[in-house]
Write a structure and sequence with these properties.
Shape: globular
Structural class: alpha/beta
Strand content: 15-25%
Strand order of the largest sheet: 6-5-3-4-7-8
Order of helices and strands: HEEHEHEEEHEEHEHHEE
Helix content: 25-40%
Largest sheet: 6 strands, mixed
């Protein structure tokens, strides 16, 4: 497995499946996403992030029938868990919606952003624990008992199902517009080289998701996420650019 910097002898990927395949080889076991909390630091390597995306793709395809034309509602702060959900969805050709109240599709989210934003109960939860699941303190009356994304995906195969990604497929939908896979890859690639820093709740949702999911795979450099801590908490992370 290649552990060096990003390769320059290959054409830029035109869909998310190609970005995942080439990016996994580029990053290897070097950091892809680092999340800093007040009393915790969680890091996922490129290999681990892609592994979770592969398991998650099986979960979405088998249990929730996600494929081209399907929607996955994602209501969660930027993290390696939300990145794995997005990558799994795009691998299958589905669309990630960052808006609440979508009439159809599977709903996945963090307890802090479910509740009032989402009608009904989410299908799966994301959390801030070391294993990606919510802690008991995060759960609310409406989310207790809902399975965690990582717990449901864990026993599934590491090798992904057949890719259905295409550059022209809708990849990300917000309240204002929809981006195709090719357009979203362009957004992620334009975020620059070096270690990137973003702040949950400050960086816009589209940029934040592109930064934690696709940018590390395209550039070979990590994204650092601040969750409720000042920029000084990232002093040891060698952040070169903040967004």
């Amino acid at each position: 497995m290649q552990l060096g910097g990003p390769r320059t002898d290959q054409p830029a990927p035109t869909d998310v499946a190609a970005a995942i395949t080439t990016g996994a080889a580029t990053l290897g076991h070097r950091p892809a996403v680092t999340v800093l909390h007040r009393q915790a630091r969680y890091e996922q390597s490129g290999a681990s992030l892609v592994n979770w995306a592969a398991k998650g793709a099986h979960l979405l395809e088998l249990d929730h029938l996600v494929g081209p034309g399907a929607t996955v509602r994602l209501l969660a702060p930027p993290c390696w868990t939300s990145a794995s959900v997005a990558l799994a969805t795009w691998w299958l050709g589905g669309t990630v919606a960052l808006t609440a109240g979508e009439p159809d599709g599977v709903s996945i989210g963090h307890p802090s952003q479910i509740g009032a934003q989402e009608a009904g109960h989410p299908d799966l939860l994301l959390g801030d624990g070391l294993d990606g699941a919510p802690s008991p303190d995060d759960l609310t009356a409406s989310t207790t008992g809902i399975p965690a994304w990582t717990h449901e995906a864990q026993p599934l195969p590491d090798h992904p199902p057949t890719a259905q990604a295409r550059g022209d497929l809708p990849a990300l939908r917000t309240a204002s517009r929809t981006w195709s896979q090719a357009e979203l890859l362009a957004v992620a690639g334009a975020l620059g080289e070096g270690t990137l820093g973003i702040e949950a709740g400050t960086t816009d949702h589209l940029t934040a998701l592109a930064a934690v999911s696709l940018r590390p795979l395209l550039t070979g450099h990590a994204t650092v996420v601040l969750r409720g801590v000042p920029r000084g908490a990232a002093a040891a992370e060698r952040v070169t650019t903040w967004i």
